[in-house]
Specification:
Distance between the termini: 39 Å
Number of helices: 2
Structural class: mainly alpha
Radius of gyration: 13 Å
Protein name: EamA domain-containing protein
Oligomer: single chain
Helix content: over 70%
Keywords: Membrane, Transmembrane, Transmembrane helix
Organism: marine metagenome
Shape: elongated
Number of domains: 1
């Protein structure tokens, strides 16, 4: 059911989610140095 839910997710929500992930990774890299 997870994949079905992902298929029904709007592109904007996916974009925002991806942006949050990228920002979290970037922040993690900055804080680790």
């Amino acid at each position: 059911w997870v994949w079905i839910w992902f298929d029904e997710v709007p592109e904007m929500t996916t974009f925002i989610g991806g942006l949050l992930v990228l920002s979290s990774v970037f922040y993690g890299i900055r804080s680790s140095k």
